[in-house]
Predict the 3D structure of the following.
Amino acid sequence: MNKKHFVLGGDIKKSLTEGYQLDFKSLFKDAFVITRRHYLALVVACLFTIIILAASYSLMLEASSALNETGKMLVNYIITLVIAPPLLTGLQMMGVNHSIGLKTKSIHLFNYFNIILKLSLATMIISLITNVISVVLTQTMGDLGLKLSVVMLLYLNMAFSLVYPLIAEKKVSPQMALKLSFKLVHRNLAQFTILFILLALLFVIAIIPSGLGMFIFIPFYFNLMGIVYRQICGVGVVATEVSDHDDTPSDEFEA
């Protein structure tokens, strides 16, 4: 039984040096096709995530009467920095796996708690950057600064949108993932901005029918970002060649 390692999709080094182009028409078409094909596993994983986070915040609210402000802040940070990052990474990596044709199960949502320290550190750095910028803008520019801080929050969310899959799939450090995500997004900032504007419009459309459209939009978003990651960074795949005398005659693949 032999194993071969290869990359499907783009090349992260080439994307950094030569740039890349996103074909929105094929990108959205492929994302819809993949979402229809792998809908159940991802939507159930999304529901698990919502339930876990909602339950965590509910418990925090119930315990808030017995906690001071410092305690409440600590509990909130635990949820934001410890519980949410590995769950969101699980959803993103399910989208990445779907983008290269691999099936997933809802339980794969929990596959990345083993790298929780790296994911939490990345989240902490992003939170620190966001808070510092928000405080500086608000204190120096007043109400205008507050509005600008919201814009900066949206911008940083876009600039660091590739951080979690870079840590999980490329096995890079949190600091390197932040640096790579920032550089990759800015290599084609105009297209990334258009992409996130289109996603924002789809989000608004999704919440119009009493929010029911979110059951389609959320899985679609993670699958679409999985395709974007594949096209820009490439996805490492291990193919296991099974010899004729083995019981299983076909190849096995894993990301």
Residues 116-159 form the longest helix (44 residues). Confidence is low (pLDDT under 50) at residues 248-252. DSSP finds nine helices and three strands in the chain.
